[in-house]
Design brief:
The chain has helices at 2-5, 21-51, 58-87, 94-127, 132-135, 138-164, 181-186, 193-226, 231-259, 268-292, 295-306; strands at 11-14, 90-93, 173-174. The protein is mostly helical.
Length: 307
């Protein structure tokens, strides 16, 4: 008995939603439609930005990069989650579980940096319009984008290497829809204090610093807008930022609800639903926001359909 208890775990079992078969099939159909809609919507934005000359601007370049992160996030989570729903749970090896979280965390981290770069782009466009074309050159935008991706994937690799070297024993059941870092650490038999410390430090680098950049950028934007004499001019400037502000609000609200709000009193079902907000539904909502609230993208869609 002692030998079996100390046996190292090689795979986990994800419970998913422990509900009736009818509800699981309904959720399967819902998530499949959301997945297809998110992939098609984000691919549409990437295609439009790359093929339409009117969208060859820094703002739309960053929007297309944001669409890539959304595709990575939802593709990392939904296919395996659909399998779990059909089979009322599913097994996943330890290395696959860690890999799933790595790509989720790296994509989400890159999105944090990209959102901050988008706010910087709006700051330059509104507060320094005469120097905008000189500052936000194509080369500069590519460098900023590559930096965001490198930061996102390199920062996550720092503690994912340590996580991959952990020993897991005892229970192998994860009461979740996908592999997340906190459930993994709870099942570890090794010392995890250093990893928790790294998580807190990296959270400051990945979440707090981009948030500060976004807040400071919009403070300067608001001050610049208030100096515009006409209400029409102020409304026009705010409309160029409204889509980005909406996406930022949704993204950070969902992340805050999942990782910052105390879990005391929350059931596992509520935690799963909150996790679905930023992994499944946010990638669907983002292209809708940019397509419905952006006249340039709507015109590009109409031109493509007419052709």
């Amino acid at each position: 008995m002692q030998e079996s208890n100390s046996t190292e775990i090689t795979e986990f079992f994800l419970l998913g939603f422990q509900i009736s078969q009818g509800l699981r099939i309904s959720l399967f159909c819902l998530f499949l439609m959301v997945y297809c809609g998110a992939i098609c919507g984000n691919l549409l934005i990437i295609t439009l930005v790359s093929t339409n000359k009117n969208l060859h601007t820094p703002m739309y370049f960053f929007i297309s990069q944001l669409s890539i992160t959304d595709i990575l996030v939802i593709s990392d989570i939904v296919p395996n989650m659909l399998h779990i729903l059909l089979n009322n749970g599913g097994s996943i090896t330890v290395i696959d579980c860690i890999t799933q979280f790595y790509f989720l965390g790296a994509s989400e981290s890159s999105e944090c940096f990209l959102l901050s770069m988008m706010s910087y782009d709006r700051y330059v466009a509104i507060c320094n319009p005469l120097r905008y074309s000189a500052i936000m050159t194509s080369r500069h935008c590519v460098i900023l984008s590559i930096t965001c991706w490198l930061f996102g994937f390199s920062f996550l690799s720092i503690y994912m290497i340590k996580t991959a070297n952990l020993n897991f024993c005892g229970s192998n059941i994860i009461d979740h829809l996908f592999c997340d870092i906190l459930p993994l650490l709870e099942l570890a038999c090794s010392e995890v204090f250093i990893i928790y410390l790294e998580i807190y430090v990296l959270s400051i680098l990945i979440v707090i610093i981009p948030s500060i950049i976004i807040v400071i950028s919009y403070i300067y934007i608001v001050l610049a807008v208030l100096r515009i004499p006409s209400s029409t001019g102020r409304q026009k400037v705010f409309s160029t930022c409204s889509s980005h502000l909406t996406v930022v609000s949704i993204y950070y609200w969902t992340m805050f609800a999942v990782y910052v709000v105390p879990k005391k009193g929350q059931t596992s079902t509520i935690n799963k639903i909150l996790s679905l907000l930023y992994t499944v539904f946010t990638p669907l909502v983002n292209p809708i926001i940019y397509s419905l609230r952006n006249t340039d993208i709507r015109k590009a869609v109409q031109e493509t359909l007419n052709k």
